Amino acid sequence: MSWFAELAGKAESLLVNFDEQTGAALRNHNGPKQRKNDKKDFYLQTDPPWMQKKRPIPRAWKKVPPSTESKNNFPVGRSSPTRQASQSPLRNNDNARSGSPKPKKLSKKSSPLYTLNNCPKTMVGDMKDEFGMHYGLRQRRSSLPTDLDMVNNDEWVYKIQNLEIENVMLRNELNVLNQEVTELLSRLRKTEDGNDVDHVVSRETELNNAQNKLETSSIQNGSINAENETLNSQLQQLKQKIYDLTNVEMSKYKEQNQSLETEICLLKDKNKELEEKLEEAITKAKDNEAAKLKLETELRHGQSTINELQNNLEKSKTECVRLEKEWETYKLRVKSMLHTKDNEIKALQDGLNLNEDTNVLMEQLEALKEERDMLSEATSRVRTECDEMKSYVSQLEARHSSAERVVAALRDALRDERGARNRVEAQCSALNKELKNLQMETGQTIASLRTALRDKDSELSHFRESSTSVRSTDTSALNVADYDVTRDVDTEKIHVLTQTLVQKQGKIDSLLADNNILRIQLEKLETKYKSEVVALRSNAHSVIHLQDTDCRVRPRSHVPDSALSALSMRIGVMIKRYPIFRLFIFIYMVRYCLRYIYSFMFIRYSKTEYYH
């Protein structure tokens, strides 16, 4: 933009010189009275608003026909942009600077409204002229902003609307200058009649000098127009390059969009597979829970059978103790009875009172001795059976202890299985949470990618619209510089977009890696789960047999209705199962018979003694 600043400075200096010359000409050719009138006119001439025609100042002087030289050299009023043959060099420069032939439409597009009095300051500085030195010179402001030096070269973006506003303002300034020049020339023409010949000659020389300066300015305008044409050609080339770049980038973005959509479809399929695997794992966990419930019921049944066996053992122990006590008492009674009988036999043998009754008694005694021998043999048998019962009780106790150990082992196994089930449930819940998080992240990434694609499409459409609008706008030096800046901005945006795409691709790769890691963890958990299921099944099939071949347990076909029937059934089962009960009943019956015989013999013996 340095060349533009130099160009603006040259134009400003040229306009200042032109105003100084016109002011000097007016000072030389106007009298003091006319200066007073000019002062009044100067104070009456306020700056017209932007894009508004200036009203002519009413004068009382005579109308003088204008000269052909002034008409040919200086344009009067505002000429249309289509008539290029009758335009002055200043108007050519104005048309070269202007972007569009209708500045009113451009002024509607601009956001701020500037006039000749309200406009940005110039780089050269505001001209504060005195009334006497610079007559008719207005305060002009250049269209460049004040903060041009403060803008960074790296992040400098200049809006096209501001440039259009500045072009319109420059055009308005040139139009105002042309109007002032025409007014001054009309005043000069009106004052020609009252001036001397010398003044006329000096005026003609000054006019010739002004014409020479205008010719030089027209030459400069031609060179500037040539530069503008070259810059326009460069701008067209840049537009073509930008269009090609946008097409290539659009194709790249479309390919990347298709690849991202395919990757998203693959991720969705993988998520579906993981959900199916999770459902299978949940069904397997439910089957495991059912198997565990079956094992728990079997354990409870085993514990109930063990408790029943323990109760039976305790009852058998108590009955054995009671039988031992009764046997000892019975032995003592039998010994006492035998001792008394032996004493009686000795007394009978010593008394020699042998009768038939005594012979019968002796025979009975011998029979009783034989019975005693038989009873001693029976007692020995009972003792052996008691020993066998004790050994059987010890075996039952050993089995009971082994059953308790098995129950403890089963409880530990159940505890371990419950812990494993809790761990598997926790892992399943963690996997569910991870799957949900993955689904959320994938949804967020898909939404962000879609928004990014929409933003890119909107930016590309904006670039296309801007390129089309740039084609329709004016091809000036300012617009060329702005297009250079916009091209840099576009390249920066494209670079940023490519960086964001690379970051999104990296995020997608990381998500795929996490998905693969989760899949490996799922496979490991499935293998663990299968091994635990196999172990549980093997433990479930290992049945513990607490019964032995010696212990004959018959199935309960008949269920008793009352307590007496149940007691009789238990007594019958005990008599059938344990022979000691049968022996006890037999001994009880023998004891009862012996008591009856002893009482009978005692009565007979008492009767015989009574008769003797």
TrEMBL record:
**Per the UniProt entry, what are the Gene Ontology biological process annotations, in alphabetical order?**
Golgi organization; retrograde transport, vesicle recycling within Golgi
- What subcellular locations does the record give? Golgi apparatus membrane
Kindly list the residue ranges recorded as spanning the membrane: 580-598
* Extent of Polar residues compositional bias: 67-97
Q: Taxonomically, which superkingdom? A: Eukaryota
Any one GO cellular component localisation term in the record: Golgi membrane
Principal localisation? Golgi
The record, for InterPro entries, names: Golgin_subfamily_A_member_5 (IPR019177)
Which keywords does this chain's UniProt record carry?
Coiled coil, Golgi apparatus, Membrane, Transmembrane, Transmembrane helix
UniProt name for this protein? Golgin-84
Annotated region Disordered: the residues are 25-122
| PANTHER family on file | GOLGIN SUBFAMILY A MEMBER 5, GOLGIN-84
User: What is the topology of this protein in the membrane according to its UniProt annotation?
Assistant: Single-pass type IV membrane protein
Q: Does the keyword Plastid apply?
A: no
Residue ranges, compositional bias (Basic residues): 52-62
Coiled-coil annotation reads 160-194, 221-326, 358-441
